[in-house]
Specification:
With 220 residues, the chain is an alpha/beta fold. The chain has one domain: P-loop containing nucleotide triphosphate hydrolases (Rossmann fold, 3-Layer(aba) Sandwich), CATH 3.40.50. It is 35% helix and 18% strand. The protein contains eight helices and seven strands, in the order H-E-H-E-H-E-H-E-E-H-H-E-H-E-H. It has a seven-stranded parallel sheet, sandwiched between helices. Helix 1 packs parallel to helix 4. The protein is globular. It starts with 12 loop residues before the first helix and ends with a helix. The structure holds guanosine-5'-triphosphate, magnesium ion (MG) and zinc ion. The site of zinc ion has 5 residues, from loops.
């Protein structure tokens, strides 16, 4: 006779490692934010500016996820922040086991905040838990204001949404991006989501994001 044991939740290999990472981060009292977006929305640009402008307040380390190359890790390294590059060799998301290895190679004791830049992809990175403290979604204004409605999972799960490249709005560039629609759709999916309108290029709007990060580190 077949018996199905529904009492014990069987964790997938990814969930096992996510749990390990989460326990490690809790033990060491470290904030870890998993940044997710489409390719090119500005994740690395947001990170390099954030690291530089917060360097006297919080120490940031980065785990960079890319299919190929260490281009983004080199950009982070130029800010002098510790960084570990993961190449997924074709996979379109990071796995918790990869983050587990990367955490071993970061000077975690010296850091207040660890960012994970996930592989540029709005879809499946939101389904693979890494053990992070929270997810951060980034959407740039050239991607279309229908994205929260069409790709709801990441907006529903994120602690914060950065709407990036706002320098392009009203700059004589036609991007047809209705910020109010994005805000309303994101809040419909996630009542508590923090919204930041930013330009990582010019620095506009970044102060509120920095204040939120510092507050999040302090309240750990
Ligand atoms: N105008 C403008 N351009 C920006 C802004 N932020 C980033 N960019 C540009 O957008 C392009 C992509 O930026 P990245 O920071 O590499 O984007 P990413 O999300 O890290 O890209 P992947 O790692 O490939 O997914 C670059 O040419 C940046 O200079 C912004 O606020 N305004
Ligand atoms: Mg990048
Ligand atoms: Zn994937």
């Amino acid at each position: 006779m077949y018996k199905v044991n529904i009492g014990k939740k069987i964790l997938s290999a990814n969930e096992e490692y996510a749990l390990k990472n989460s326990q490690f981060l809790t033990e060491h009292k470290k904030l870890c934010l998993n940044m997710i977006s489409s390719p090119g929305s500005g994740k690395t640009t947001i990170l390099t500016r954030t690291i530089s402008e917060l360097k006297d307040k919080i120490k940031i380390g980065v785990i960079e996820g890319d299919i190929q190359t260490d281009i983004d890790a080199e950009r982070i390294r130029a800010t002098e922040a510790p960084v570990v590059q993961i190449n997924t060799n074709g996979a379109c998301h990071l796995l918790a086991v990869q983050v587990n290895g990367a955490l071993e190679n970061l000077p975690v004791g010296d850091l207040d905040l660890i960012f994970i830049e996930n592989v540029g992809n709005l879809v499946c990175p939101s389904a693979f838990e890494l053990g992070e403290t929270g997810k951060i979604a980034v959407l740039s204004v050239t991607e279309g204001d229908d994205k929260p409605a069409k790709y709801p999972a990441i907006f529903a799960k994120s602690k914060a949404l950065l709407i990036n490249k706002i320098d392009l709005l009203g700059a004589g560039v036609q991007v047809d991006f209705d910020i109010e629609r994005v805000k309303a759709d994101a809040r419909k999916l996630n009542k508590g989501i923090e919204l930041f309108l930013v330009s990582a290029k010019t620095g506009k709007g970044m102060t509120s994001w920095y204040e939120w990060l510092v507050k999040s580190v302090e309240s750990l």
